[in-house]
Design a protein that fits this description.
alpha+beta; two-stranded antiparallel ribbon; 8 strands
């Protein structure tokens, strides 16, 4: 029988997994179905949503199903430990999410600090290479652990079959390569970006430039919040694993989470924090970004119809209107007021927020 604490955590994890699937599916659909949302930044956010979904999917066997069946032994048990029951694929997806956030920080830095340098601009070709690099790197990073993990029928549990010194090396690599190094790099990059946007930006009177500045600030605030949540969610687990492997901590508070085995309470709580990190990102998009919030609402209320063209397709909200006069085209009622001096959407005279 599972303990009361284990049942409580199963309920919590089940709720977070449902929210994770719903929110991250919305993010991916928004980027795939709306041409105006298909920017390099949004594709990276969609890749982050995919990684978060895969983390939740492959975390289900370890946190929810392991006590409901008898784990087989032999080579079948070893194979299951390497793939599903020890959540190795979840950790692979989480590494992919962290590398994605590092690429996002790199993109924001060059887009704002070096906006006219075409050699570092995030083109579609460069974006495709980055996405391939992200997933290959995450697979390679988890490959050593996947090789050494096996099922121990005496415990019974999935264990890492490596010497003590290699376990310490593994804990050190996770703490520095997955935690401290990427967070340090992102802190430096975002520090430069924040300084440019909020402290060194020119107070221009040009409406289009001011609109661009507001947009950059909004996107930067979104990814900054995501990065801070990442640090809060991941560092406790990484630090605990490091201290545990170096025998610098001895936590005797345990709960039953497996047939015949236990886990420390702090470790299970740290897993909950990591799961929260993969769940809250869509909520951050909705609260920080007006475009994501509007498209999420449209999908949830089943009101996003087909777009016949770029201009009038965005005017499917109550109160939206188009005014055509000798001065050009004026769009109102969609959260922005835009005016085109000639009747083509490529010549933008000004565009200002109305919300």
């Amino acid at each position: 029988m599972s303990s009361t604490a284990d049942i409580t955590f199963k309920v919590v994890f089940s709720f977070m997994i449902i929210v994770n699937f719903l929110g991250n599916t919305l993010v991916i659909l928004i980027v795939l179905r709306n041409r105006r949302m298909q920017t390099p930044m949004n594709y990276l956010l969609a890749n982050l949503a995919l990684a978060d979904m895969l983390f939740a999917l492959f975390f289900i066997p370890r946190r929810l199903l392991i006590t409901e069946f008898r784990h087989p032994g032999g080579w079948v048990g070893d194979f299951l430990c390497k793939t599903f029951t020890h959540a190795n694929l979840s950790w692979m997806a989480s590494v992919a999410a962290i590398i994605t956030l590092l690429v996002i920080a790199w993109e924001r830095y060059h887009a704002i600090i070096h906006p006219h340098n075409s050699r570092v601009r995030m083109t579609k070709g460069r974006l495709r290479k980055f996405l391939i690099f992200i997933w290959i790197s995450s697979v390679v990073f988890l490959l050593p652990e996947t090789v050494v993990i096996r099922y121990d029928e005496n415990k019974p549990a999935c264990i890492f079959d490596f010497p003590d010194w290699l376990g310490k090396a593994d804990a050190t690599m996770w703490l520095f390569a997955v935690g401290l190094f990427p967070l340090g790099v992102m802190s430096i990059l975002y520090g430069r970006v924040v300084r440019r946007l909020w402290f060194n930006s020119d107070h221009t009177t040009n409406v289009s430039q001011r609109t661009l500045l507001r947009s950059r600030k909004r996107v930067t605030k979104t990814v900054l919040v995501i990065t801070v949540v990442l640090a809060i969610s991941w560092l406790p687990n990484l630090i605990y694993y490091f201290l545990e492997m170096f025998l610098l901590i001895n936590d005797t508070t345990t709960i039953q989470t497996n047939i015949g085995s236990t886990e420390t309470l702090f470790r299970v709580v740290s897993y909950a924090f990591i799961s929260i990190n993969s769940t809250v990102n869509p909520v951050i998009y909705a609260t920080q970004d007006r475009s994501f919030r509007r498209h999420m609402w449209s999908l949830l209320t089943k009101c996003c119809g087909t777009r016949n063209n770029k201009v009038f397709g965005e005017l499917r909200q109550p109160g939206a209107c188009v005014t055509v006069s000798g001065a050009g085209i004026v769009l109102n009622g969609v959260g922005m007021e835009c005016k085109f001096e000639d009747p083509t959407p490529n010549h933008l005279e000004y565009c200002k927020d109305t919300q």
